[in-house]
Hints:
The chain has about 90 residues and is mainly α. About 80% of the residues lie in helices and about 0% in strands. The chain contains 3 helices and no strands. It has helices at about 1-35, 40-65, 75-85. α1 (about 1-35) packs antiparallel against α2 and α1 packs antiparallel against α3 (about 75-85). The longest helix has about 35 residues, at about 1-35. The radius of gyration is 18 Å and the shape is elongated.
Amino acid sequence: MIMSDVLHLAAASVLLDTAIKGLLILAFAGLAATLMRRASAACRHLVWTLAILAVLVLPVLSWALPDWRVLPDWRISETTAAAVEAP
Length: 87
């Protein structure tokens, strides 16, 4: 039962980390599209298309590439330590 809680916390941590990364990618795309307001619609569309593709590929890249943690390590270790110590 305790191992299951640890796995759930680890999965939640990975999902939260991926969600924050995706939000950052889309925020940068929104900023880029806003700054490109005088550019052609095709250029702005390309920015949004690349951002959406990056968000879709993000879980695979997170698995294949070295870690780029958005959440601090102390937050992850405290939650897993609390789950292991709980009866």
